Known about the structure:
By secondary structure, the chain is an alpha+beta fold. About 20% of the residues lie in helices and about 40% in strands. The chain contains one helix and nine strands; from the N terminus they run αβββββββββ. The strands form two sheets. Strands 2, 4, 5, 8 and 9 form a five-stranded mixed β-sheet that branches. A four-stranded antiparallel β-sheet has the order 1-3-7-6, with no helix packed on it. The protein is elongated, with a radius of gyration of 23 Å.
Amino acid sequence: MHIISLKSFIFVITAVIGIASSSAAISQDKETENHVGIAVAASRDTLGPGAGAEILFTFSPKKGYHVNAVPPMAVKFDSTSQARAGGKIVIPADSATGYLRTSVPVRQPFTLAKSAGRGRTELKGVLTYYYCSDAGGWCRKENLPFTVPVKVK
């Protein structure tokens, strides 16, 4: 009878260790989602209806991570936003590595809607980019929702 109890005890301990290991792996994956800091701003904070400017994305990956220039990033403005893409996104790449040059902002030209009313408005959209862990050997696609306030004069 003691042998059965000992086997049951060992089974329970093994199951608990397995569950704890799985939980640690899940927590670790959630932590990897914040390895790239991004500051988002408009090149001009006051615009007239129909005027053009740029959304600036300044990347600051943590040590041991890099942002890829290829596949290229993409910006999609929200359908309710007062902004529309006004040209191709400008992605400064390091010619030696093919990675994003983080010392220079990524620039997305846009045009403010001609129907934009005076006052404050928010330009909303989603930036899609790819980043990698140098040590871990993995890469991820990230979709970053952004909101940039501007004043319409």
